Please model this.
Amino acid sequence: MKITLTAEDADRIGCPQVVEFDDTRIMTREAIAIQKTTGYSLEGLGRGLTGLPVKDAAGNIQYVTGEDGTEVRDEFGHRSVLREVDIEALLVAAWIAVRRAGVKVPWDDFDLDLFGTKFGDDEVVDEGKAPPSETTTSPT
Model:
């Protein structure tokens, strides 16, 4: 996943504005750093990046509904669970991506502009080029 930081965050941290988090490759020391420093297990990080199920006030899992109010189902007929992004999991992914870019920021000092950071695989738009498709994952 490409993570596009704000120019201000990239300057403050001292890293490139676009960093990459490849969740198919976790190095052993990264896994240890994630677990010891952030408290996430690799399984917990994976669940957080996939999205946590949204529950109502009574604790019931909520399902995705279409514009017509009917529940959305997958190709097997199962209801699609409504999920929300775990913001801390996104921050952990960005922290690892910045570390992979060669900048070792302590976890306790690592922070990003939540609304200015883009989490997704879209390319950064250059002046004069058509914008990428609307698939960027945003925590809002």
Summary: The chain has two domains: 2-51+86-120, 53-84.
